[in-house]
């Protein structure tokens, strides 16, 4: 016979319910021993596989194909929903719509997709080992069942990889948005500092209060300093507006 253990992740569950089972396949029967079955994923997939015989003779090869197909039956819909959610989050980031915990959401999606990718790679490996039929356990004309299982798991894995690439783009877009906000803030601080720099020079200069400074005794000294300060500020603002710094 041929035996293997499998860790099943139900992609249709919000919490990615995990299930563990061992499967032993012989020429005449298939034995499934469940060690953990959250949400009865393995249980439901078993009966779904049995009910999908459509009157055909049930063989070990066909049952394994139907069983794995039942395990992945809702995964295509899940990838579409995840893709929509990622695109929606990316659109909010690009449009600068306030989104709380963007990094946490990205990490959550990435963790979920990584688990699913490992899960599909596991299914591909099992299906390819069954397809190789090294011990001659299966009929050669029924090995196509295992190839179909491998192909379906491969397509789902490729979709997961595309979603992970979308997450990379989303993270880059979010980081670019943060950098842009930081640059805008730094530009504002630079403008304010530059405007007040000549004012600081003026106040420092006339704050020395030497006896021979003519402006000290002039009745126009104080208004003149105010006028000079306002002129300097207006000139700086005009220059910054011309340079489109704000």
Brief sketch in words of this structure:
By secondary structure, this protein is mainly alpha-helical.
Characterization of the model:
The chain is mainly alpha-helical and 246 residues long. It contains seven helices and three strands; from the N terminus they run βββααααααα. Strand 2 (18-25) and strand 3 form a beta hairpin. The longest helix has 63 residues, at 144-206. The termini are far apart. The mean pLDDT is 83.
The averaged pLDDT comes out at 83
Instruction: Calculate the terminal CA-CA distance, rounded to whole Å.
Output: 75 Å
Could you give the count of β-strands? 3
Shape: rod-shaped
In N-to-C order, the SSE pattern is EEEHHHHHHH
Strands of the widest sheet, in order across it, are 1-2-3
The structure class reads mainly alpha
Major pleated sheet: 3 strands, antiparallel
Q: How many H/I helical runs?
A: 7
Low-pLDDT runs: none
Give the proportion of residues in helices.
55-70%
Radius of gyration: 34 Å
Strand content: 5-15%
């Amino acid at each position: 016979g041929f035996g293997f253990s499998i860790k099943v992740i139900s992609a249709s569950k919000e919490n990615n319910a995990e299930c563990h089972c061992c499967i032993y396949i012989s020429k005449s029967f298939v034995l499934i021993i469940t060690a953990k079955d959250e949400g009865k994923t393995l249980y439901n997939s078993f009966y779904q596989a049995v009910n999908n015989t459509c009157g055909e003779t049930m063989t070990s090869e066909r049952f394994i194909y139907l069983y794995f197909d039942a395990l992945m039956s809702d995964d295509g819909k899940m990838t579409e929903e995840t893709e929509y959610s990622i695109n929606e989050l990316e659109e909010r980031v690009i449009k600068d719509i306030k989104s709380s915990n963007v990094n946490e959401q990205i990490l959550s999606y990435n963790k979920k997709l990584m688990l699913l990718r490992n899960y599909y790679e596991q299914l591909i490996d099992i299906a390819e080992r069954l397809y190789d039929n090294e011990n001659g356990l299966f009929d050669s004309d029924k090995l196509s069942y295992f190839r179909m299982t491998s192909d379906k798991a491969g397509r789902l894995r490729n979709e997961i990889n595309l979603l992970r690439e979308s997450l990379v783009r989303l993270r880059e877009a979010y980081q670019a948005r943060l950098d842009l906000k930081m640059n805008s803030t730094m530009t504002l601080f630079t403008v304010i500092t530059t405007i007040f720099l000549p004012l600081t020079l003026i106040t420092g200069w006339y704050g020395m209060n030497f006896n021979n400074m003519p402006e000290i005794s002039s009745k126009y000294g104080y208004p003149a300093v105010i006028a000079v300060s306002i002129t300097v500020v207006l000139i700086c603002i005009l220059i910054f507006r011309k340079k489109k710094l704000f």
